[in-house]
UniProtKB/TrEMBL annotation:
Start and end residues of each stretch annotated as Disordered: 55-77
Lineage: Eukaryota, Fungi, Dikarya, Basidiomycota, Agaricomycotina
EC number, UniProt record: 1.1.1.49
Function: Catalyzes the rate-limiting step of the oxidative pentose-phosphate pathway, which represents a route for the dissimilation of carbohydrates besides glycolysis.
Catalytic activity: D-glucose 6-phosphate + NADP(+) = 6-phospho-D-glucono-1,5-lactone + NADPH + H(+)
A cellular-component GO term for this protein: cytosol
UniProt entry keywords in alphabetical sequence: Carbohydrate metabolism, Glucose metabolism, NADP, Oxidoreductase
Record family assignment: Belongs to the glucose-6-phosphate dehydrogenase family.
NCBIfam families given in the database record: zwf
SUPFAM superfamilies tied to this protein: Glyceraldehyde-3-phosphate dehydrogenase-like, C-terminal domain, NAD(P)-binding Rossmann-fold domains
This protein's name: Glucose-6-phosphate 1-dehydrogenase
Pathway connected to this protein: Carbohydrate degradation; pentose phosphate pathway; D-ribulose 5-phosphate from D-glucose 6-phosphate (oxidative stage): step 1/3
Example GO biological process: glucose metabolic process
Residues covered by the Glucose-6-phosphate dehydrogenase NAD-binding domain: 9-196
Length: 490
């Protein structure tokens, strides 16, 4: 674990990711005393700006205490913010020129010698577009690598667009940075409820013993966002919803949900098991797929009306995909991933639907369901049947409900990026994606993606759905085809 002597360099410091996620996460960790007191942060990007401009950009998205907070809370926040900016500086430079990285090195050496650091540790956070990942990783290695201390590099998707392009990118990075030095973020692995999955499974006898094909009928992992591409259409159209969230966020969640019990909780043991279960998943079949694209409704623009989207694009903004796991535990159980933009609500959840109770004594018994709500409002609840209170014997479906807001009202749930950045400081790889995990994840999706990209002939045309709806009208038929019963809802 890095105790002190650390400098964080945020590359792409003027960009959106840095502003929205990286700096607020660093600040919160710093404020709560999780980061070394003598930390220094350097922002690096192409935009020329003064340290002052950098500071206002850096803190622009940091949430302060609300208006009704006490004066002392407000003062304490302000004090921390001032301290945070005082330990942050900025260097402007190109991504493909040694001169920029030399200027960065000079700043690194300056701030390290000011703190009397002898063995500097350097954490490079790449909040950058993928087009410059490799060149920046090379520039950093060549110019800014600490030879006396340790170095770590954090990178984030997109890691290529299919198996081959990902391999190409990874092997270029590997020439410079070892697997041990590399931290590949999938920010879903930093979410509280995703981190909870292993504990729920392997810390509860009743749960783990029913977690298999004998008891479970089908599993759905759902990602719904109520907004469209909104100006991000250029990026989105190149990738589509499957690359944007299914191949990474939802598949990572699925692997934790289905892996076997690891030998220990160490990062390598956990990731070994994740890779093992992913290797049991054949590539997704076209017939197990439903694709959609939103059209304008109620004054909201359709996908193709976004100026940044190419005319006539058939890029899916919605996908329902069924995956199968060929191992003794899960054989024959459908795992349905559903993901979409511009839907009727914001929700990410795992819904595990159990099989029917054997017929015979009660009628109309709803199925048990275990729901893990990842966001918003973290919760775990079990749908189960009980006798309607009173003088009749009739079943009523109800819930055993653990809603975090009421049960853990005082707890602060950290942002995913906070959890992950702290892990990177600790040198804990558990919640980062290993190279072989990434490779097998791409294998599951690549044939389907090539078909969708039109590489095997004409690209399939997605079904239309109105902005703000539940998705294409075929969705219910799709999920019921895999055994999902909606009788539980409502
Ligand atoms: C990102 C995707 O990886 O995840 C976005 O690129 C998506 O399109 C986002 O909106 C969702 O993250 P979260 O944390 O808001 O669920």
């Amino acid at each position: 674990e890095w105790k002190g002597e650390t400098t964080v360099v945020v590359l792409g410091a003027s960009g959106d990711l840095a502003k929205k996620k990286t700096f607020p996460a660093l600040f919160n960790l710093f404020k709560e005393g999780h980061l070394p007191e003598d930390l220094h942060i350097i922002g690096y990007a192409r935009t020329k700006m003064s340290d002052d401009d950098f500071h206002s950009r850096q803190i622009g998205n940091i949430k302060g205490p609300g208006d009704d907070a006490s004066q002392s809370d407000k003062d304490a926040h302000k004090k921390k913010l001032d301290k945070f900016t005082s330990i942050s500086s900025y260097v402007a430079g190109q991504y493909d020129e040694d001169s920029g990285f030399q200027a960065l090195l000079k700043e690194l050496e300056k701030v390290e010698s000011e703190r009397g650091v002898e063995k500097p540790n350097r954490l490079f956070y790449m909040a950058l577009p993928p087009s410059v990942f490799t060149i920046v990783a090379e520039g950093l290695k060549k110019n800014c690598y600490s030879t006396k201390g340790a170095n770590r590099i954090i990178i984030e998707k997109p890691f290529g667009k299919d198996t081959d392009s990902c391999r190409e990118m990874m092997s270029a990075l590997k020439e410079q940075w070892s697997e041990d030095e590399t931290y590949r973020i999938d920010h879903y692995l930093g979410k509280e409820m995703v981190k909870n999955v292993l504990l729920l499974r392997f810390g509860n006898v009743w749960l783990e013993s029913s977690f298999n094909k004998n008891f479970i009928s089908n599993v759905q992992i759902t990602f719904k966002e109520p907004f469209g591409t909104e100006g991000r259409g250029g990026y989105f159209d190149e990738f589509g919803i499957i690359r944007d969230v299914c191949q990474n966020h939802l598949l990572q969640t699925l692997s934790l949900l289905t892996m076997e019990r690891p030998v220990s909780f160490s990062s390598e043991d956990v990731r070994d098991e994740k890779v093992k279960v992913l290797r049991c998943i054949p590539s997704i079949a076209r017939e197990d797929t439903l694709l959609g694209q939103y059209v304008g409704a109620d004054g909201k623009p359709g996908y193709l009306e976004d100026d940044t989207v190419p005319k006539g694009s058939v890029c899916p903004t919605f996908a329902a995909l069924t995956l199968w796991i060929n191992n003794p535990r899960w054989e024959g159980v459908p795992f349905i991933m559903k993901a979409g933009k511009a839907l009727n609500e914001a929700k990410v959840e795992i819904r595990i639907q159990y099989k029917d109770v054997t017929a015979g004594i009660f009628d109309d018994i709803a199925r048990n369901e275990l729901v893990i709500r990842i966001q918003p409002s973290e919760a775990i609840y079990m749908k189960f049947n009980t006798k309607t209170p009173g003088l009749i014997t009739r079943a009523i479906p109800t819930e055993l409900d653990l809603t975090y807001k009421s049960r853990f009202a005082e707890a602060k749930i950290p942002e995913a990026y906070e959890a992950l950045i702290l892990d990177a400081f600790k040198g804990d790889h558990s919640n980062f994606v290993r190279d072989d995990e990434l490779d097998v994840a791409w294998k599951i999706f690549t044939p389907l993606l090539h078909w969708i990209d039109g590489k095997d002939g004409e690209a399939p045309k997605p079904e239309e759905y109105p902005y703000g709806s539940r998705g294409p009208k075929q969705i219910d038929e799709f999920t019921s085809k895999y055994g999902f019963k909606r009788s539980n809802e409502g």
